[in-house]
Specification:
Layout (H helix, E strand, L loop, with lengths): L3 H12 L3 H15 L6 H10 L1 H6 L3 H8 L8 H9 L8 H10 L3 H22 L4 E4 L18 E5 L2 H11 L5 E4 L2 H10 L4 E7 L7 H14 E12 L6 H6 L10 H10 L3 E6 L5 E7 L3 H4 L1
Parallel strand pairs: 1-2, 1-4, 2-3, 4-5
Antiparallel strand pairs: 5-7, 6-7
Helix pairs in contact: 1-2, 10-11
Bound molecules: S-adenosylmethionine.
């Protein structure tokens, strides 16, 4: 169970300017506490009641996540903070130090690498003239390289109108089909209409879907993936050092999965999966190939 005295000491460390040391210590301490699943909820509560939590929320990255300005966790504005690491002008020294450290952690690096991978994926598919569907596209930041290009052939789906407003602003009127919809409603409609995509991918979505929703998602993905085409998903992995910090400090709880679990969702839906782990070890990836070329003939 969390000790208030430890939090008092960390608060003192922060006041004496030892921000990196305090953050490292809190990170490790929370990680150890999370091992006890019975007391973990009380430990989270105790942290949030302590003045230290208020000080941590001076960091605009942590406070955006905790306060959820768009009403749900992990919005595209938060992901932009991770991508851009742009410190607000109003940040004081302590907030700036915290921001540099908290946006520099391995899980944030994993999110940036996720975008890098998607950047190549979407650029190559676009160059090859493939039909592309991006589900839960957020601000479609992996498509920044395509700004100014004709995006006909790309369908972008998100349920948040604010996300799509940013997409429209960035990409002006370059032909993309932009759909404000829940991905399940969109996929059902697309499948019924016989729509097919050579590449369909979703990043930062499956971490919020329970297993039942994952089964449905993969069935629908299979229906809209063209024979010979592929679907790509990525999911944060279980038992990471960052998990306790994210849950307790940031109120950012994900559903964690291993690559083998992603492969199984894909296989059960009829895909041939290929999986890998990102270089930081934080994110499991699956590329799901639809192989039934004969069925299409
Ligand atoms: C973590 S952001 C990821 C954005 C983007 N894919 C990226 O990797 O930068 C999650 C996005 O998913 C959208 N989203 C979450 N659940 C959704 C759902 N069921 N249907 C459509 N969009 C969803 C949110 O609106 C948000 O824009």
């Amino acid at each position: 169970m969390l000790k208030t005295r430890f939090l008092d000491e960390m608060l003192d460390l922060m006041r004496f300017g030892e921000v990196p040391a305090a953050l490292h210590a809190i990170y490790g301490y929370l990680h150890a506490l999370r091992d006890n699943s019975e007391t973990w909820p009380q430990s989270i509560e105790a942290l949030r009641q302590h003045r230290l939590h208020g000080v941590l929320l001076e960091d605009s990255f942590l406070s955006h996540c905790f306060t959820r300005p768009r009403g749900y966790p992990g919005d595209a504005g938060l992901i932009d903070i991770i991508y851009d690491r742009k410190l607000p002008a109003a940040a004081n020294d302590r907030a700036a130090q915290m921001f540099a450290q908290t946006t520099g952690t391995a899980p944030c690096e994993a999110v940036r690498l996720r975008r890098e991978y998607a950047r190549t994926l979407v650029a190559d598919a676009h160059r090859a003239g493939q039909r592309i569907c991006v589900l839960a596209c957020g601000h479609f930041r992996e498509g920044d390289d395509l700004i100014g290009q004709d995006l006909s052939g790309i369908t972008l789906v998100d349920q948040d109108p604010l996300s799509l407003e940013v997409v429209r602003r960035n990409h002006a009127v370059q032909g993309a089909r932009i759909e404000e919809a829940n991905v399940f409603a969109f996929l059902r409609r697309a499948a019924q209409a016989g729509e097919q995509y050579d590449l369909v991918y979703t990043l930062g979505l499956t971490d919020y879907l329970d297993d039942r929703a994952m089964v449905l998602l993969h069935r629908l993905l299979h229906r809209v993936t063209a024979p010979g085409g592929r679907a790509v998903v990525a999911n944060f992995r279980p038992d990471l050092m960052c998990t306790a910090w994210m849950e307790a400090v940031m109120d950012w709880t994900l559903i964690y999965r291993e690559d083998a679990e992603l492969a199984e969702f894909g296989r059960s839906a009829g895909f041939a999966p290929r999986t890998w782990i990102d270089p930081t070890g934080h994110i499991a990836w699956a590329e799901l190939q639809r192989l039934d070329l004969a069925a299409a003939a």
